[in-house]
Amino acid sequence: MPVRAYRASAAYAGAHISANMWLWVIVFAAITAVMWALNWMDPRSGIWSHLLVLSAMVCSTLVMIQSQVGYVSPYAPKDDEVDVVTPPVPRA
């Protein structure tokens, strides 16, 4: 079953990344710095600039994911309440 093996490996990789989020942020920040230096030395090089943007996007996505850890919405239903009616949001 190749799908079962894929799901198991994807779950393991996802658990590793979420458990070591700050490590991955630091790794991609370092990769971004190296790519920036290589692009700065040769600004006509297209490959370094593409890799620079890719690593910066991955790093910023990981930072955004990390910033949401532990956030609880004020409109989230409580565990012991079944039917919660949220108040209407006032419009400005």
Features:
92 residues, 66% helix, extended
Question: Could you explain how this protein is built, in words?
Answer:
There is one protein chain. The protein has helices at 2-19, 21-41, 46-67. The protein is an all-alpha fold and 92 residues long. The chain is extended and about 60 Å long. 8% of the residues are buried.
Question: In a nutshell, what does this entry contain?
Answer:
By secondary structure, the protein is mostly helical.
Q: How would a textbook summarize the main sheet?
A: none
Quaternary structure state of the chains depicted: single chain
Summarize the amount of helix as a percent range. Answer: 55-70%
Q: What structural class results from the helix and strand content?
A: mainly alpha
Report the principal-axis shape.
Answer: extended
Count, helices: 3
Helix and strand layout, with pairings?
Blueprint lengths: L1 H18 L1 H21 L4 H22 L25
Helix pairs in contact: 2-3
